[in-house]
Fold these 2 entries.
Entry 1:
Amino acid sequence: MAPAKTRNEPTPAWRSYGAVALNPTDNVATVLRAMAAGETFIVRIGAQFTDLTAVEPIPYCHNISLRAIAKGSGILKYGTSIGQADTPIAQGMHVHVHNITSLRARAKA
Amino acid sequence: MANPLLGLITDRIVDAGGRAILGETLEWLGAEHLLAARAATPSVAQSITTAAVNAREAAAVAAGVDLLGTNPTPTNIQAGLSTIEEKSLGSIAKSGSRRIEGMLGYAEPRPRPLGHGRARIRAGIRDRFRRCGRAVDLVHTGVGNSYVSRIAPTLKVSANLATCRLAEGQIDFDASTAFTGEIPAEDLADDLVLTICDIAGGTASWGEILGEGDEVVSRFGAAL
């Protein structure tokens, strides 16, 4: 498996970013470790890197908003909609079932 | 991250003249346009969106089943998945990038073998019960899963570091280095091909050793 790393090797890129968004159009990213409220980390968006601060705790592998998302707007991940915002979502917030809804296969009320 | 890794495997199988089958059409909801764009013909594209996905979606709605409560499952939701669309987009990454040649119905046998070099991807409903003649069932799991096919050797792959550590005796292939980026995905795919060959050649998978099963008939509703 992984070859043993020597002390002089540069830090691998994966150690340097805390969240990743695969498509540049995405408005959410996936955190690669649990983030505390107020924690600032590097986000990889496609091939670009930027800083982001979590405004609330984000559990491991959950989504965080990369920018403000208006109520009713699409949540974009992998360049495609994964649902819509139920409430206004500020940058750095936890984006999950409490504030977004699927647009598919909804039973009629 | 194990999903795109399986996508690399799918492409390799297809490029080598093999055939890959993508199941679980319910988990195409929200991603069917990406599959349809790879269809060999307009009728295959239509069968992906109309026959498979829309029919399943309509059946769920007609049955009064709201996928919000059942798929993604509560375990998926806890692990970070929010909607069926998000789950689907990850799920279809397993299908790789090659052309989709056709659609198989439930329990429909595979078509006649293909000539050398005429690679195809077959997409169909719930591959698990189909007499498709596959050699290996590749299952990707984020948080662990006790499903094992009754008709094909089943190999479980996970890229979740915590799962790979905790379920060492369930995950046949630890792809967590794809998640951390320690090992390039292409190199990991080389290792996975060797593991697949081992299992296809008779080495027992963890599921076989542990006697796992959990095969279920297709249905709407919560997976218990």
Entry 2:
Amino acid sequence: MLPTSISGTDALRTVRKKMTLKNIHPAAFREANVRKPELFYVPFWYMKAQVNGYALGVKPKFKEEEISLIHDDPQNTMWVLAPKKKIRVGIGGKAVEKEIHIDTSINITAADLEPLGIPSLSADTQFSITGMEIQSSHLPDGVLVLDRRIQSNEGTFVDPTVTLSEAYAQLEKHSIRLARGSGRSLENRWDYMIISGKRASLVYYPLWITSFIFKGRTYHAVVDGRTAAILRGRFPGKKNDKFLLANLAGVFWAAILPFLANIGIWMNGPEWKVQGRTTGCAGVLVLLVIGAGYMTFRFIQVLEEMAKKGSDYIV
Amino acid sequence: MSDQVIALRCSSCGYSLDGLNTDIIFFCRNCGRAWVLEEGLTPVRILITSPVSSMDLYLPFWKIDARVLISERISRPSETRSIVSSSTLRIEKGLDITSFPEKNDNFIFPAFSSSRILSLGVSLYENPPSLLKRVDGINPPLYGGTVSIQDAHNLAEAVAVGVEIAMDDSLASLEISVKPFAEELIAIPCSIIRNGVSISDGKAFIGYDSFIDSRAIFAKLDLNPEERVTD
């Protein structure tokens, strides 16, 4: 395990400090009801292997030649001699035999961290994870053997969901991909590779999860237990959305009212004739107003939903 | 998640087994038996060879006996002008195709971590150690055994491929089947020389830079290579 290098108070302090940023709701720092941070140790497979083998092939040899070119003129009446051009011509090749030896290691996320908003490490990972000490091929210093005393005293240890055989499959994929890079320029290539010395260790990495309630909503932030960086978090943003909602609703009604008034005037003028009988139009007008009111209500509901998400500040 | 804890004790005499953190091969200093860590401790035959006067340490090697069948061996000339190219195809000419009947063979290669494990195996195939004489009553301290039996079987096939590659012609491709039928460990006397370790009286050499656990092994044996270097 990699022990946490920060305390719960440090994690809290990091989250608190984040709340003072200008993009965060100004009242969040004062009014948020912050819960005690919880420490979780999340599992990673640390996999090692060696790839041994050979890559055989032919390294092509070329010579450069200058050749003359001709092309037909635009009128298609005659051939024109063009300037000479240099080309490479294959003149055979040299047999090449390369020994391959690669020591490889990879860290693979052993539990699903996506719900926390943390991308997984796997054989396909191309990018580093910002803020974390553990990376695709780098295991930080300071790993301790996990003993029961540590396990019972501190934090919750998350069980791995990625099996060892799945992790080995990823290790093999990663190792073979690296080894295939040897002798890439060879033609008629034949290679032979074996993977040996496969070793697996389960490494637990510390993450602090801090929750706080602000204006009835619960927010979470994940703080790295090694670097004290906020890996992922949702914070209440500034509430500009209320103004946006009010303005949009106002514009909607401003646009629709003249139209409704027009209908009202028109309905009070010429009478509608239904099946040869004259009838009043007040009922239709009421229905239209109710419909527009309902649409406005739905519109505000939708905007509110969007505003809840859209106004949050996400790390 | 259940943990399986294996006591590092000789299953034969109960003596405590010692090794490096990365070791999976252990030697009993009391009764001389060797054990490989797999599901548990599996016994494996070990051959302790005669010590030589200039030796500094013993290193562990695998000796794998196997049935080797080369069903197709394609070689090419080292320099060729015969690659004919067209717009879509490159055809290689001058290839020589042969096959060989099945035969018994053996391969010796390090049981410790090395980046030159295959080339050392090929060297020891071409110049086999001449001191493969079992010596009883010697239980030398042996450390650094990291290659499992399964890996040793796979490496034996890789060494067999390396032997074909090391031949005078240039190998183009190989269809080979190596079926191990016996394995044993050999403790081979080695001496520390400049920049590395000489194996079996100069039959092979391994540089410090390709000797992955050398520092740990030397520290465990209380050896200081800088003090023992001879030209």
